C-alpha cells in the first residue's frame, strides 16, 4: 500500500507538484479511457439484447425487462412497476397495450385485468447477458466457416512464410554466390511496393493461375515477405560460419545444416516472425476482399465488414462477432506484450 | 500400459508434434544429397533461394512491371491480351481538368477529390500523430510505476485488425453511441457524427491516430531511452531549465527517430484504406474517399470497372510512395553518418 501511495504522490524533485506531473497523470488516466474504453465498451455492448442496444441513453451494463410466466398465457409477459390510482405500488405484467392504456394483470391473481396509463408504469429491469449474440452466429450464419477460413489462411500462410523465408535467408547469409547482393537489393526494394500499387495486375495474375475465389490466392501473394527475409538474414549472420564448416566436415548435407543446425539456432527470430505473420494474416482485409467473392470463402475480416454493411440493424451479432475476431490478437497481446513492446522498437517493423 | 523402455526418455508434446516434420525433412534429404553432388554447393544456394524468389517474382515483381502495361490500356476486360492499347490515354484522362483548382471540373473528379482528401489526411496525420506520440513517449520515458503496463496500453490498438478498429468506432460514433452518451450528460442532443461530412473526415483522422499511435510512440521511446542520462544531469548542474534541456538536448538527439516516424506516418497515411472503408465507406458523399479506395473501386467495382485507369492512378500513387521511401532512406543514411544513431 505504501508503495502505491509513494507512487501516486511521487513528484518531480520532491518539492510540490510540478506541472509535468499533472500532465503525466492527466495523459495516462485519459489514455486509459481512450485506449481501452472503446474496446471495453464494445465487449460490454456485445452482451446486450437488440432492444438494449437501441436504447438511448445507453446503460453501462446489459439490462433487459424482467419477464414472468403467467398461467393462461403462452408467452412470458413483461413485468412493470405500476403506481395505481390509489398511490399503491405493485408489480404487474402487461398483457397488451392499446394507445396510452396498458392492460395489466397481477401475476399472483391473473383473473382480473387492470387498466393503467402508460405514464404510470416503468419496466422492472434485471441484468442479463445476451449470450445468444455469441451462439446464434454460430448456427445461423457462416460464422464458423469464416473462422475456419481465417484460421486456415493464417496458419498455412505463416508456416509457408517461415519455411520459404528462412530458406532464402539461409542462402543469403551463408553462401557466397553471384547475384547475392542483387537478390538482397531486389527484396529490400520491394518494401516500397505496397499492395495498393500492384492490386490490378496482381488480381489478373492470381485469376490467371486459377486462384481467384480460392484461399490459396489469399495465401500465396503474402508469403514471400521482404521483412521476414530481412530479419531472419540479420539473425543468421550472427551465427558463426565455423559451425556450418564443422558440420560439412562431419559429412552433413547442406539441407541437414539448414534444418538441424541453423533453424534451431534461429528460433528466437523465427518466433518474432511467426507472431507478426499471424497478426498480419489474421488482420488482412483488402486483398482477401478482392480475391474472395464467394461467401463461403470469406475470411472473418471480410465476412464481418460485409455483414456490417448489409445487416446494419443487427448490431448485436456484429458486436459479438467482432469480439470473437479480437480474441486471438488480444491473446497475443497478453502473452507477449513485454516482448512485443521492446522487440518492435528495436527492429522497426510492423 | 507399456513398460518404459530403459534408456529412452519420454517425449514431450512438442517433440511428438515435430516427429512427422523430422521424418519429412529427412525424406527430402535423399534427393537433395543427389542435387548437392551434381550441382555443388552453389546449386544448393539457388535451391534455397528459389521458392522465395519464385513466389516473390510472380506475386510482387511481375505485377509491378505489368502495372505499367495495364496503365496504357483501356476497356473493362481483365486479361492484358484482351485489352486495347491507348497509350497515355488513361493518364491524360486523370489530368484532364478545365480548372485545376476545382476538382469538379475534372473528367475524373473523384480521383482529384481522393487526392485532395488524402493530402489533407496526410498533413493532419503527420502533425497530430507526431504531436501525440511524442508527448506519450516523453511521458512513458519518465520514472513511472508499471511503465510496461502503460506502454502496452498505448500499443494495444496497433494489434487490432483495421476491420475491428473501424467497427469499434462506428459503434461509438453512431447515434446511440458512447460519444453521444457522454455529451448527453452535458446536455447535448444525440448526433450522427458519421453522417456529417466534416465530422466524418475528422473521425477517420482521429481513429487512424488512435489505432497506430502506439507504434510510433515505441520508436520515439526507443530513441529517448538511447539518450545518455548524464547529459540531463550535467544540464541540471549548470542550472538549465527543463524546457531548454528539451529543446537543446532531447529534440536534437531524437531527430533521427523523429524523421523515421514522419516518413513512416507519411507512407502509411498515403495508403490509408481498411479502417476508413469499414468506418465510413468513403462517405458521406466523397468526403472520406481516399486514394486506395479510389483505386479499389475503379479497378474492381463492377459498375465502373476500369482497370487501366486504376493502374494509372496506382502508378501515380506509387511514384509518390517511392519518393517518400527514398527520402526516408536518404534521411536515415545521413543521420547514421552524423552520430551513428538510428
Are there runs of chain A of 5+ residues with pLDDT below 50, and where?
A: none
**Mean pLDDT reading of chain B:** 85
Oligomer classification: heterodimer
How much beta of chain B, percentage-wise? under 5%
H and E string of chain B: HEEHHHHHHHHHHH
The spatial strand order of the largest sheet of chain B comes to: 1-2
| CATH level-two architecture of the largest domain in chain A | Orthogonal Bundle
Which fold name is given in CATH as the topology of the largest domain in chain A?
A: MetI-like fold
Known CATH architecture of the largest domain in chain B:
Orthogonal Bundle
Q: Write down the domain tally of chain A.
A: 3
How many domain regions of chain B? 2
Any idea what the CATH superfamily of the largest domain in chain B is called?
Answer: MetI-like
Kindly provide the radius of gyration of chain A, computed on alpha-carbon positions and rounded to a whole number of angstroms. 30 Å
Report how far apart the termini of chain A are: 39 Å
Task: Give the % helix of chain B.
Answer: over 70%
**How does the helix and strand content of chain A classify structurally?**
alpha+beta
Query: In percent, how helical is the residue content of chain A?
Result: 55-70%
Number of strands of chain A: 8
Main location (chain B): membrane
Keywords (chain B): Cell membrane, Membrane, Transmembrane, Transmembrane helix, Transport
Subcellular location (chain B): Cell membrane
InterPro entries (chain B): ABC_transporter_permease, MetI-like, MetI-like_sf
Question: Keywords for this structure?
Answer:
heterodimer, A: 350 residues, alpha+beta, SH3 type barrels, two-stranded antiparallel sheet, 15 helices, 8 strands, B: 342 residues, MetI-like fold, 2 domains, 12 helices, 71% helix, globular
